[in-house]
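Researcher: Structure for this, please.
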Amino acid sequence: MNYRHSFHAGNFADIVKHALLLWLLERRQAQGAVSVIDTHAGAGLYDLTGDAARSREAEAGIARLMAADARPPLIEALAAAVAQLNPDGRVTFYPGSPRLIAQRLGEDDRYVGFELNPPVLELLAGALEGFPQAMAEGGDGYDQARTWAAEATGPFVLIDPPFEQPDDYHRAADTAAAIARADPRATVAIWTPLKDMETFDGFLRRLDQAGIKRMLVAEARLRPLIDPMKMNGCAVVVLNPPPGAEAAAIEICGWVADRLGGDGARSEVWMTG
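Model: Predicted structure, token format:
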């Protein structure tokens, strides 16, 4: 477990993931109480003067977003959350998925985030202090998510692994498919890096072979997918997406590719089923 969310916090992929996550959460809450299950929660809150300063990914991501004018409406919710954490106008702190979700939970909503690394689990618990509807749990999020989703009201599952273990793509696809098959009302969002199309196509084929026909595929590519050693883009795949998800993803991914990408940057968003 040598991957650290803190190294990548606030990069372009976080913008795609978190802007779409906030939109999906709002839509689920409009349908009633929601239980959010986060398989790989991380620390929940990040100091961008630490590991992220060495990677400089936040400089090319959230710092540019906060300095941009004419941001699209669906990215404003993320910008507002970042601004709230940084009242001095700088971009020092960045909220991970747990903190972003916890701040928006209603009285009847619930959040549980799983983390395997004990020191990071302790940080996660600290990030969720003051949010009684949110809790941090140790354990394997893939296994735990299935159990919790089966007992949850209005399950909304976020699968966001580091993809550094050789079976992460398979376990992410299998977990998502099992939850969606068991409960057609469940929404499952899976974040993946985009390095090469062969790996990503294999991931989509595994979902299809598991019987998943209706899903949203949203890609933001910062550069052509020609170097499998780099994260050239990212994707969010949503099973059982709510109405309007395709348009929302087009707005978010399009802005990220256009404003943060280089030569050959583009977005790809489509629905299956």
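Researcher: Any notable elements?
Model: The first strand starts at residue 35 and ends at 38. The radius of gyration is 17 Å.
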